[in-house]
Structure formats: C-alpha cells, structure tokens
Give the backbone structure.
Amino acid sequence: MKGQPMKMQRLNLQRLNLRGGWALVRKSLFSYMAGRGFFWTLALGWMMGPLVYMFVWTTAAKAGATGGFGRGDFVFYYLCLILVNQFTYPVSNWTVGDVIRSGSFSSWLLRPLPAIYEAIGADVAAKMVCMPFSLVVVAGLGLVLRPTFAFSWPAALAFVLALLLAQALRFMLAYVLALVALWSQRADALLGLNDTFLFLLGGQVAPTALLPGVLQKVATLLPYRYMAGFPIEVLMGRLTRTEIVAGLAWQLGWLAVAVLLHQFVWRRGIRRYAAVGG
Amino acid sequence: MEPQIVVNDLCKVYRVPEREAGLGAAVRSLFHRRYRDVLAVDHITFTVQPGEIVGFIGPNGAGKTTTLKMLSGLLYPTSGEVRVDGFVPAERKPAFLRRISMVMGNRNQLAWDNTVSDSLYVLGEIYGVPRDEFGRTRDELVELLEIGDLLSKMPRDLSLGERMKCELIAALLHRPRVLFLDEPTLGLDVTMQFRLRRFVAEYNQRSQAIVILTSHYMADVVSLCPRVVLIHQGRLLFDGDLARLAEQMAPFKLIRLAVGNGNGQAMADVLPGLGPAVTLIEQNDRRYTLRVKREDASTVTARLLNDVPLADITVEDPPIEAVIDQVYREGVSG
C-alpha cells in the first residue's frame, strides 16, 4: 500500500504525457523558426491596432486628460496592450477549425495525448518566437514616446497573475469556439465574432474605464475585459485592492466556465466528428 | 488462441446533408436542411488473430476506411462491438493509442517544416519511447527502408515515395502491436510499391504485429495478405484466403490456347459447338482466351484437345482483379 501514491502519481503523469506536450512545443518551434519572417510580420501586424488607437487617444488627450488618462498614460496603456495582446492571442485556434474540416484532426486524435496539447504547443511556441521581437519593438517605442507610469511590486505581481489567467481564459474560450467545427465544419465566423467583442469590450478600442455607462457595465460582466484590458489596469495601479480581487475572481469564474464548456463541447463534438477524407 | 481484434455486428450510419442542384435549392437549404442517413458499415462481424495480415478489399465507398477508422478509435460506431487488444477503440485511452498505428494516404505524421529527423524525435517523445530504444528502433527502420540520406530533409521537399517511407517509419517507431495501413502504396511507382510491401511483410514477421491493409492495388493484397475481407456496400461479402475468394466469387476458369499454323478455321468450327457455357473473351491472331464454367472446364479442355490441333493450352483461375471487378459490378454470384 505504501507504494500506491507514488504509483498513482506516475500513472497520472503518464496520462498527462508532459514529455509529449513539450515535444509538440519543440515541433512548432522548429516550424516557426523555419518561417520566422512570417511570424515577425504577423507580430508587427498585431501591433498596428494598438498603435493606431494609441495615436488617436494621445491626440485626444492633448486637450487635457480624458477620463483620468493623460497622454503618457495612454502611451503606457497601449504599449502594454501590444505585449498583453500578443501574450494572450490564441494564434493556433484559427488553424484548429481548418484542421478539423480537412480531416487532419485525425492525426491529433491518434496520438496518446490530449488533442488540446497540439494547440497549446503551437501557442507556446508562437509566443517564444514573437515575444522577444515584440519586446524589442515596444522598448524602442517606449524610449521614443515616453510613457508615464508608477511601478509597484504588489501591482506587478498582481499583473503577472492577471496576465496568466487572461491568457488561459482567452485561449480556452477561443479553443472551445474552434471546436464548434466538429459540428458545423466552420468556426471562423464565431472566432471572428469573438475577436470583435474583444476589440470593443476588452479594452482595445478604448480602456474599459472610458467606455460609456452601459457598455462599461456589460464589459465588467463579460469575459473580454479579463482577457486583455484588466491586467493592464492592474499594472497601472488604477484599481483598488477590492477591484483587483473581484477582477481575479471574474477571471477564475470565466475560466471555470470555459473549461466546463470545453468538456461539454469535446464529449459531444468528438462523437460527431466524421473524420472526413481519411 | 484469443483473437486480438474482435468485431461484432458493427454498424456505422453517417447523416449527410443533401440538396438538389441550383441556386434556388441552395437558398432553400439555408432555411430547411435535408439530411439522409447513409449506412456505411452494415452489421460486420470478424476476428483477427495475433500476427495476421488481413487485406480489406472493396470498391470505393464500400466501407473499408470507415471500418478502419472505427478500429482505430477515430469514429464512434453507431452500434455493435469493437475490441482491439482488449480496448474499446472509441474510448481512445492513451494505453490503446500507444499500441496502434495508422498510415493513411493523406494523413501526415511528419511536420511539414521540421526535418524528418526532428519529426521522428518528436514522435518518439509523444509515444514515450525510451531514449536508447528510440535510437535503436529508428536506426533499424532507417536501414531497412534505406532513407538515411532523407533524415536531414524537410518532408515538403521529398517525393511521394520518399515521404511514404518516412511516414511508415514514423508510424512504427513505437513498435505498434496493430498497424492499420490505408492505401499505403497509392501513387507510388512499381519499385517503391515492391519495397514497401517487402518492408511491411518483414515488420509483420519480426514483430508479430497485426497488419490490416486496404488497397486498390491487388498486387499489394496478393503479395501481403493470406486472408482477405471483401466489403461491398457496407456488408462483409467474403472472409477467407485469397485463393478461395476466386473459387467462391468467380465460378469460372479461363482457358488460354494457341492453335497451330493454318488451323484457325478448325477453331472457328468448334467454337459454336462448345455451348453457351463457353464465352470467347479475347482473340489475338491464333491465340484465344475462353471463359468456361468451372464445372465444365475439364470437358471443354478435352474436347478442344481432341478436335483442334493445338500449339499450346493452359487452364487457369481468372486474375484476381477480374474476380474483384465482377463482384463490384455484379455482386456475389453462386
């Protein structure tokens, strides 16, 4: 009986197959490095949106602070958004739907590890390739545009926690939407809609604090703010401790919903999967 | 001996959307979608013993690949029972997936942008192959298929045949106990087909793994599969050895003969008298091929030997392709 917990632990680890999961990260990393130019261009493209909003808002702030945001605040917010957006962007989920539709999803299903590992591996690898590039660009922009911010360790620690939860939440929700392709063969439209909501309510087009009354209320209730804008608000020190705790609770709550949705969609969807074309 | 694969009364029904042609029908289908149930596999039952090589044959859309997909856990059966090596495939337990492997014409195990060597390494890690065993197995398989010079290349730069050889190695790295091959030689030249067949046979002999193969090339089936399972319109029409398939499915023999110089007229005179059971299916100068009912073959041969001065005569079973073709077109006879 003494050996039982150790055996159980080994069995669980074998079931998790972390060795295989890390190998998938390496596989994607090799692929991305082979076409790194493409990914850097992609990363540059992802920066364009936040940069445009930044210039719009900093121009507006020349007349005076808007909703408590001065010019330097907007610069800081949007430079952070570039990094947060890249860190949380679920790059692989656009391909999951295609993989299902083409039938190559079968390859994922025949391997002794959860299918979600392929998407996670591709995502982790994309961040490893893109983030250093984005960090350099953002650091350069920071030197030129002079953001204003007040650093504090508690805010930085809370930011890291909020960022990790934002990444997990954004990934899981997009993955669940991509799995809808198990029924409909097409998940692109849903993923596009998801991105639009994120653009409007996630703190991209404007920090959620600047949204008009009803929209601000809606943004607090829906998951999108917690996928991008919330971690930056935490880092900027604009939230009280209670608001931070409430935000983290919302993140955990929505993450739990996304995980449960995944279980539901996966179990039903995999029975529907027709394994088209071999 | 306990069978390693048990398939009992297996069925698969696909629900497929359908509509008439044209824009109007397309618009109507936006609001009211019609579905049709297609019975792809119809109450199939068979077992496979350890170490067997079984060929699944049948025309396009017969249900071969659907059956393979249910055996490998890719598809949930609509009804019936499947057990492979003690597992229910549709549960897709990791322990089950480590025991099987599947090679399909359009399924790529190798990552397009990784070198073959990197891809094999990744697969070894995914299947948890011990590192020293991985090196040994890979080297052994690379030597068997002679692909040493391909290891540093990207799969996208390989020819179809080269890629298929690499795919086979990728599929065998974890030494599966059951190997599903769906059209493994599709699009390959004759030499490559021959080498792949030889390789599969060697793997089967060495590892005693079950090999289940589907192929439209009868040469694959003839050279590899002592046992064939013939599936047509979802139903299992025949399960047994290949020679018996010809006997059972084609109740006729072929008589090939050549008449001596200047004896063409003698043959022309005799032919109508051989009766309706004999059909002339080919004539090329002095060479004739006759199709004769199996039970009449000896009588007709004796009559020909007596009445026509022959230069040569052979009596043989029809080529397996012809038998299969007949079954596909006409269904099972006799």
Notes: Chain A has one domain: 19-272.
